[in-house]
Amino acid sequence: MTHLSLFSGICGIDLAAHWAGFKTIQFVEKDKFCQKIITKHWPWVPIHDDITTFSGHGHRGTTLVSAGFPCQPHSLAGKRRASSDERDLWGEVVRVLGEAQPEWFLGENVPGLLSSESGRF
Q1: Annotated active-site positions, please?
Q2: How far apart are CA 25 and CA 22, in angstroms?
Q3: Which end of the chain is more exposed for a tag (fewer CB within 10 A), N or C?
Q4: Rounded Cα distance, 74 and 10, in Å
Q5: Per-10-residue mean pLDDT for the chain, 121 residues long?
Q6: Is the dihedral of CA 55, 101, 88, 9 positive or negative?
Q7: CB 85, CB 116: distance < 8 Å
């Protein structure tokens, strides 16, 4: 079972995937501190640093794609600008999912995502 990790952060989802028997084959994470954590624990797995230039085509058929994409555009604690917020990267997740066509997707975000733009997300 293979795993593609988007917006990996400090690898909470990735650690759980590892414990469940998945082999992470790619990370996509721009934060330099988070990249250091990834490199410490998975030094053999490549890291791409920009979701907007990452292609999922090379990972077609991956068992699992996970993404803890930015929550600020959807958070009830924020301005809830959703797709008008430059930090809204849900569209990039959808693009990569279409390219990779995984068996499963695991997304992590705030409850406000479900009501953003009248439920569009």
Answers
A1: 71
A2: 9
A3: N
A4: 21
A5: 97 97 98 98 98 98 94 70 75 96 92 73 74
A6: negative
A7: no
